[in-house]
Amino acid sequence: MALFPLTTNFQEDFVLQLVAVDTDNSMDELAAAAAVHSVGRRVKARPGVLRVRRQGSDEPFPRDLKVGAAGLRPMECVEIFWEGSPSSVRGPAH
Predict the structure, then answer these.
(1) Pair 43, 13: CB distance under 8 Å
(2) What is the β-pairing status of strands 77-82 and 3-10?
(3) Could you give the CA distance from residue 52 to residue 35 in angstroms, rounded to a whole number?
(4) Which residues pair with 18 in a beta bridge?
(5) Average pLDDT over residues 81-89
(6) pLDDT tens, 24-80?
(7) Edge-to-edge strand ranges of the sheet holding 3-10
(8) What is the pLDDT of residue 92?
(9) What is the phi/psi pair of residue 32, to 5°?
(10) Would you say the C-alpha torsion 69, 70, 76, 77 has a positive or negative sign?
(11) Residue 71 Cα distances to 17, 33, 37, 38, angstroms
């Protein structure tokens, strides 16, 4: 158990947030910690499940994966998005 700083890029938010989570937190807990800083402030709440992926990746982490086991580096940026929302799917890179 140790505090672990990550930068979060929340879907539809224009502000990156620094979030300190525990290495024993799951990806669901990381998503909830990031949501506190965005949802209801600059981002409208939506129905659905929040997911976490490494920035630039198409695949989300498993929801029960622990932060400490994800291979993330301190201060690395992760993306938080609502599963199934149209803007959660990446378009072709140009």
Answers:
(1) yes
(2) parallel
(3) 11
(4) 7
(5) 71
(6) 999 999 999 999 988 878 888 888 899 999 999 999 999 999 999 999 999 999 999
(7) 17-22, 3-10, 77-82, 50-54
(8) 44
(9) -65, -40
(10) negative
(11) 20, 19, 24, 25
Collapsing DSSP states into helix, strand and coil, what is residue 10?
strand
Give the Cα separation of 91 and 16 in Å (integer). Answer: 21
Name the DSSP class of 68. Answer: G
| Cβ-based neighbours of 39, under 8 Å, separated by 6 or more | 10, 45
Q: What are 73's two structure tokens?
A: 């580096």
Residues forming beta bridges with residue 81, ordered by sequence position: 51
- CB environment 21-43: b (16+ within 10 A), e (fewer): bbeebbbbbbbebbbebbbeeeb
pLDDT at 94 (0 to 100): 44
9 pairs with which residues across the strands?
79
Residue 65: phi and psi, rounded to 5, are -65, 135
The alpha carbon dihedral of 77, 22, 44, 63 has a sign of positive
pTM of the model: 0.85
